[in-house]
Amino acid sequence: MRRKIIFLSMLALVLTWTASLSAQVTIQGKVTDKQTNPIIGAVVIVPGTTYGSSTNAQGEYSFEVKKLPANANSVEVKFVGYKTKRETLPSQTGKVTLDFTLEEDILLLDQVVITGNAEAVEKKSLGNSISTLQSKELENIGTAQIDAALTGKIPGAMVQVNSGNPGGGTSVRLRGLSTLYSGTSDPLYIVDGVIVDNSASALIDMGGNATNRIADFDPEDIERIEVVKGAAAAALYGSRANNGVVQIFTKRGQSGQMKVRLNTTYGFDQVVKKLDMITYPYTKTSKDAPLTPVTRYDYQDEIFQIAPRATTSLSLSGGDQTTKYFLSGSWNNQEGIIKSQRYDKKSFRVNIDRIFNDWLSASVSTNYIHSLNNIVANGGAYDNGFGVLTAVTNLPNTYNSYPDANGIYPLAGFNPANRANPLDIINNWKSPEEINRFVGGLKLDATPLQGLSIQYRLGFDGYSQNDKYYIPRISSQTMYPNGFSQDATKQSQSINSNIDVTYNTSLTSKIKSTSAVGTEYFQMESDLVSSQTQDLTPFVELLNGSAAYDAVSESKDVRKTLGYYFQETLNYDNLLYLTGSLRADASSTFGADQRWQIFPKYSASYIVSENDFWKENLANYISYFKVRGAFGFSGGQPASSFGRLSNYTQVSYNGKLGLINSLILGNDNLKPERMKEWELGTDFELLNGRIGLEFTYFNKKVEDLIMQAPVDASTGFTSQFQNVGILSNKGIELLLRTVNFQMPSFNWSSTISVSTNNPIVDKLYAGKQVVISWYQTVLEEGKAPSTFYTYKIDYNKLDANGLPTRKTYKEYLGDPNPKLMWSFTNDFTLWSNLSMRVMFDAQWDFKVLDWNSRNLKSASYPNSPDFAKEYTGELPWGYNVRVNSALGEFVSDASFVKLREVSISYTLRNEAIRSVGLNNIQVSLTGRNLFTFTNYSGYDPETNAAGQSAYIRGFDFATCPIPRSIIFGLTLNL
Length: 974
Hints:
Layout: H1 2-22, E1 25-32, E2 43-45, E3 52-54, E4 60-65, E5 74-78, E6 85-88, E7 94-97, E8 100-101, E9 112-114, E10 120-122, E11 130-134, H2 146-149, E12 157-161, E13 170-174, E14 188-191, E15 194-196, E16 222-228, H3 231-234, E17 245-250, E18 256-270, E19 282-283, E20 292-293, H4 300-303, E21 307-319, E22 323-335, E23 342-355, E24 360-374, H5 388-394, H6 422-428, E25 432-449, E26 452-471, E27 484-506, E28 511-534, E29 551-572, E30 576-587, E31 596-607, H7 612-617, E32 622-636, E33 648-653, E34 656-661, E35 664-665, E36 673-686, E37 691-710, E38 719-742, E39 746-756, E40 760-763, E41 770-772, E42 777-779, E43 787-790, E44 793-798, E45 804-806, E46 811-812, E47 820-830, E48 834-844, E49 847-850, H8 851-856, H9 866-871, H10 879-884, E50 891-893, E51 896-908, H11 911-915, E52 920-934, E53 955-956, E54 964-973
Parallel strand pairs: 1-7, 1-8, 14-17, 35-38, 49-53
Antiparallel strand pairs: 1-4, 2-3, 2-5, 5-6, 9-10, 11-16, 12-13, 14-15, 16-17, 18-21, 18-54, 19-20, 21-22, 22-23, 23-24, 24-25, 25-26, 26-27, 27-28, 28-29, 29-30, 30-31, 31-32, 32-36, 33-34, 36-37, 37-38, 38-39, 38-40, 39-47, 41-42, 42-43, 43-46, 44-45, 47-48, 48-51, 49-50, 51-52, 52-54
Helix pairs in contact: 5-6
């Protein structure tokens, strides 16, 4: 009898267990905001499982769960811009309906961010500042470049579009300069865990700016961007993080019905402002000479055009509980505002996520880009000034540049040996740049034990860049009377391999611990081959069109970095978070004795509003209040991978090649530039989240700056790369977000961003002033980097001819680093269908050397309107030439306010739309760079002829101005 009872009991247990395995629950519901508007694309999951779905166009969701773990008793909803919400699951069988109303997360504190390793954390737990940008903020922005899209959206980031050339050319500085001679001050870019190359390589010097490679990526593919600014956050990237880190995450598929998105735009670009040129129909060669009638030409009307632009992108995404996918393709075709400029880019992306079982998953990200950029020769120095805009200011506008009856363009009007007819350049010269690029990443996630996660990431970035330059025979210049051809190809590959291990555990009922260790290996190799020739066979553009090559060169670059880190975070009762980490880093760019460096970081944050006292007494006034602080170190590597070595250079003697020592002495004690930074800040929300404020004060100092210092001539060398400089900077960052009106039919929110910048050179080699003569700037202790230092005019002292005299001494005239940056954005929504965004941004209190205006006052090409005043006697004869001799007269205040973005969009959602298989249709109209409010006399105060250079800023010479863009868009969501 006893055996039967035991048998029946065991049978009952088995049947019960079997029934529980087969039990199913269908979870469904709707997700809306406070105004009952549906939230589309919200992620609904059962925490701790792979079960979940996303909401459709009506905000509805539904998914089936075959088996729930015993501890899975809740459902969670996440959506960018809203606070995460969790509800208890009332039943684990049958059909359960759970509706959610989400509250706006004005400071995105509930957002999960990645700060340097595999462990994702909520932003509110961080002790350091980190800025995020969502895909919604990248819609209808009027630019196809990711870095340009950051303008005005990230506190503490100075985003400068260096030129208006199509295809990109943007500098990004986070918290000001962090280096002087080590390449650029642009941040490290990471896309889906792949360290990507953002170099701006001008393989052939044609003046103007080179395209930087982050412009290859398509903003339509971006899910979010995280900007890590401080050393305490960037320390986990070691000796490459002084300039900050920008992490880009592309879109991934969600389980559920396949989503199709088709976006197409069409618009045009146009020049906003032209230089004032003399139109007076007379000229004379001396004070007493008679006026001579002349015909004047303003070739700006022939050079600039209204340039069409168009983009088309198509994406498909979806999947099930185990496999998700995102596929996209895009095409961008854009002509430049300078005639013959043309940029064509095609991009293809495949992202796949696969869950193999309850402890192992994988993600694959792939992106192929092909672009063809026809670059027009523009700018350039005097020995190779074959530039279109160079001719505007460097050729007399009395010269007729139009072709004759035989189609032959006349030689340039002044100094034809190193000038060219701008119309000839536009119509007959060729300078295409072709990019083929593949970026791929693999990520494996394993959770073999509770609390333990292991992640492996493998990234590859490889591209080829081919630049060509062709000048035909019988051209409008005399340096290459029988034509010229040049071809340069760069091959670049980089690999990063990362392993991260994270362990989460509870030390006590109130203290949680997160421990992380990891290693990273990075290797980059590049090879550049260039050749050129002249005296071409008629109609032949290739190098083999000549019997002999004038120059053939090849260079290689190899760089390797290895790093290890450990990080520990303690969480006390979700109130206090303490984090400390160490990174050991080694790079092949440094000598054996200096190769390994240690970069620590420490941070703390205290969420004051989580205390019971605060909740009971102050929560109705200040719903969220946090104080935070961080301190850390990071490093910077030199621009040259072999700067620590004494290298050789090739020479030709008696028709044969040989090797001699270079003039730069190697330095095996070279070590990283080392940045020490601390920051203090606070985040708080008022009026139940309708007002949010982030405030940060930072103070950083970069020591061991790598500079080229002179050495004793007895060594046989002239200079050496040494760690001899110190650069400091401090400032504030403020981000204020407000919900001004929030009603069912109308919403209005505002965002104000303010940041300050105060860079100072604290130390140089032996305290010596470093003169950058062409740009009229200096590096000097106690001064801002690249302070303008040159001659001005003394208008109170006249000579015998009544002309003001040039001062005999140079003056400090300010610097090109903006002291204040701000932006003001307003977003409006009407009836949840009509939306509008208006953004102003500004850079304040900085100087630019307007070399264009200086050239207009030259006696050789007198194109300034002020020459007419000389011809009529309103100004004394020789006045303009006298002013031209003092370059300080052209160092101008370049402060500006721009109406950067205006966009209006209308979304159609109704049964008629759904009846043809569409969720919605969106039409939009976008304007970018519509107006610039400034006293600057040049084309645009934002441009910089030196491109990505760290210390050469504020130089405006024959640079393509930034255009005004008007774009119409149409988006179909299926």
